[in-house]
Structure formats: structure tokens, C-alpha cells
Amino acid sequence: MSRRYPFVTVDVFTDQQFGGNQLAVFLEPDGLSDVEMQAIAREMNLSETTFVFAPTRPDCIARVRIFTPGSELPFAGHPTVGTAWVLANRGRAPAGSRSFSLEEGIGAVPVRLEGDVASPSRVWMSHRDAAFGAAVQQRAEIAAALGLLESDLLADQPVVTGSTGVPFLYVPLRSPEVVDRAEPDWRALIAAVGEPPNTFVFAPDPGRGTSRVYSRMFAGASLGIPEDSATGSASGPLGAYVAEHGVVGLPEPIEIISLQGNKMGRPSLIRIRLRLANGHATGIEVGRSVVRVLEGVLTLAS
Hints:
- This protein has 6 helices and 18 strands.
- By secondary structure, it is α+β, with helices and mostly antiparallel strands.
- The relative contact order is 0.19.
């Protein structure tokens, strides 16, 4: 007897189909083993696939397991936003509620809906406060490992590792054009800084607005994807870095927009909201729209 598993795919951090970051959501995954979930994620070949289970925590409406083609993640942004939208759209969120939490590997992740609860116009996910490491001193080596010159780095801004749940190496560059020229050599990055986390490059983007940055995220081999078109988990620390270091002008209330995925032909506009308290970013939220793309059923032999 075969087993049937319905799924939905959505595009996240965009208001148009075939933009943003793709996500597959399996809403009835009971009976799947860890090995099968990893194989399904590899078969879907999207940056992430989520599997929605009953929660084990009373403060969450669902437990979400997140897989890339190469590994399981404890936390990720566009899967959180996209899965929350699908749950609301399918009536799986508390009736009339605009706020709830999803259980992920790092614990409860709060989300907030805007617009029609059954078809939210925007979904926001909350981040814990960002933690950053010490400035990395090997600037010339890191630039060379990205196929750049040290002069391509943004002057007087540190290269650091930052995280709100998943670590990224943040490399500020001087312009969007330089961001588009970056091409990582992972062996050279490892030689420069040891085993590096996923690497996030960004630059001020004044041509598109005073509070905007232009971004790319290069994924390490373990994820099974070379580049990500929209990385919500990286965008929380990105907003904290940009605000705390004054990389761009900040409106009041603070909202920073990151354009990511443009070089890949899947432009994603990620909105980042936060507050500054004594120069420290807090109250970080990341969000935007989600668009439904297709529905299907995966059939597995028993």
C-alpha cells in the first residue's frame, strides 16, 4: 500500500509568483522517518522544505522541522514565514488570532500576521537579540576568498560572525556592484577563518533608498545549496548590524529593506524592523508577503 503526503509550495519574501524564495510545506507528515524527510527535501531541491507536526510545547501551535537538500536546520526564516502563512491560509492557526508561535529547534518562534487572517498580506517573525563575535582580522584573506580586493570591503566596518539562532559570517562590501562580483572559494575561506559558517555579503544600496541594503548569502556545502535567494534567519542579525553600525540612514520607526536574490533572478525584498536601545538592536522582526504557487501529493511506497 502506498502512502500519500499532500504539500503546498509558496514563494516567500515576494508579492509575485516565481520571485522570492521557494518553500515546500508538508502539512500531514506523520509516518515519515528522518531519512525519508531528508530524501524528500533533496528530491524537492528547494532551499528548504518543512514538515508540520503536532507541537510538544503548550505555547506553540505546531512543531516545524526544516530541511535543506543537505541537512536539517534548527531555525530558518523563510520557512518560518512561509509555513505560518500556509497554516493561517489552511485554517490551522487559532481562529481569529494574528499572533502565535511555531516550535522549532531553537524553541518557540513568534510570528505575527497582517491583513486578512485567512490570507495574510504580510507575515512577521520575531528574532531574539543578535549576538556578534569579535571582529575578524583577516580582512585581506577573506576578500581574496570572495574573489575581491581588501579595498572592496566597506571601510571602517567589521567582518563578524552574528546569529539569532543560526550563525552567519557578515562581510560588508562597499557597493551592490561589488556584492554581485563576489564568488566564494570555500577552501580559501576555511584557510582564512577556519570552518566558516554560511557567508552573508551586503552593501549599502542608496540608489534604491536611504535605508536599503543589497545582499547575497552563500551557503556551505552541508546545506546542499550554493546560494540562497532570501534568508530570513540571516536578516535579523543583518538588521542589527546595519542599525548598530550606522551603515545606512535609519527612519523612525526603524525599518531596513534588504534586496536579496537579485543576482539569482529571484529578487526578494525582506523588511527588517527593530528598535535601538543604548545603541543595541532589540525587538527584531523580519517579514514580507507570501504567494501560493502550487499544490500536490507525494506518493511513497510502503
